[in-house]
Amino acid sequence: MRSLYDLEVDQWAELLDDEPTYRREQIWDGIHAQHRDIEDLTSLPKALRERLAAETPRGLELVTESVSDGGDTIKFLWELRDGSRIETVLMHYRERSTVCVSSQAGCAMACSFCATGQAGFTRHLSTGEIVEQVVRAQQRADLDSTSGQPRRVSNIVYMGMGEPLANFDSTLAAAHRIRDHLGIGARHQTISTVGIIPGIKRLAAEPLQVGLAVSLHAANNDLRNSLAPINKRYPLEDLMDACAEYIDATHRRLSFEWAMIEGVNDSQRDADELAHLARPLGAHVNLIPLNRTPGYPTSGSPASVIKDFVRRLEDQGVNVTVRDTRGSDIDAACGQLKTASVEMPTRRRVRD
Ligand code: SAH
After folding, report:
1. DSSP annotation of 68
2. 230 to each of 102, 224, 234, 289, 317, how far by Cα in Å?
3. Whose CA is nearest to atom 17 of ligand 1?
4. Strand, coil or helix: what is 64?
5. Which residues contact 196 (CB under 8 A, 6 or more apart)?
6. DSSP string for 316-351
7. SS3 label, residue 212
8. Residue 193, ligand 1, Cβ within 6 A
9. Alpha carbon of 218 to ligand 1 centroid (Å)
10. What is the architecture, at CATH level 2, of domain 4-55?
């Protein structure tokens, strides 16, 4: 059975064959721009609502919601219709609300320090499953308000579970639909990759103005091979060429993500190597103090080491920010998303 957000416009037309044509737009708009459930589209006749609710169920079933940072960080654990599980994180800031979406259930990239990588790959998500994460997070944000104003999701980062460029078509189609029908501009969406070169090249050729972040973590091949094994297939020299090509083609800002791992990649020499790669590309560096994961018993770098690292980069003309560790107490921070083995076994819902 197809789920609500897996239907494309022409499939809605088929499903609504015996209805007046304006219904298609009414429903499409209702479940996207207005982020409503079918049951709440009260402008539809009740019988139609009931039929559609039965024939096009939602694709994500909420298992748990965890809240931290005084209500500003909310992590959702969802069960998909085949029983796989994924997570999504909603983060409210003063000026914006960002949703961190998953692009795959699990991940095949096996980065040693990442909980999703430690758990392995289950499957790609469909476009609808990516889009629905944003809609459902927006529904939750509708309940949050600051000074009486409901919160509007303004930014999307493809930094949840999975490798978005390994699921290129669904991710790109989701980015388009989120722009066109949820009203979140491409410039407010950032795709993060471990460095899948063919994906970076394809993205460079796309007119969609999404941002690109490359998870670098090491600026020499030996260290990067050990942290992000995909580097053996797509080594740094080739990756940097692809990044240069991306910038030439798009003139968009590129950022490098770097998890600060104590004693592993946080020395002054590491900073010099990173500056050497970042500077010619004008890449922005985003440092992420390593978050703890069960399979990687190393700590994040201490604040003083991060400070020295920042200074060393800045001295060499590199733009750098340090990311806050939102939601680490609820395992919602970067690299902590995983769903296997930690949950109590649940009863499978019976599906037709
Ligand atoms: N596969 C994509 C999308 C995941 S994004 C990618 O690799 O970019 C998640 C970000 O968090 C990546 O930059 C990832 O390297 C980083 N990360 C993973 N594990 C982490 C950890 N334990 N602490 C801090 N950052 C981590």
Report:
1. E
2. 19, 9, 6, 22, 29
3. 335
4. strand
5. 163, 165, 166, 230, 234
6. TT--EEE---TTGGGT-STT----TTTSPP-PPPP-
7. strand
8. yes
9. 13
10. Orthogonal Bundle (1.10)
> Is 257 noted as a catalytic residue in this protein?
no
Confidence of residue 351 (pLDDT cuts 50, 70, 90): very low
Residue 128 to residue 8: CA distance in whole angstroms: 9
- Indicate whether residue 174 lines ligand 1 (CB < 6 A): no
Pick the CATH number of 60-330 from 3.30.70.270, 2.70.130.10, 3.40.50.300, 3.20.20.70: 3.20.20.70
- Does the pTM surpass 0.90? The reply is yes
Question: Which amino acid, one-letter code, is at 13?
Answer: A
Cα–Cα dist 160/337, whole Å: 7
Express each pLDDT in 159-175 by its tens digit. 999 999 999 999 999 99
- Give yes or no for residue 255 CB within 6 A of ligand 1: no
Residue 243 has pLDDT above 90, yes or no: yes
d(CA 268, CA 272): 6
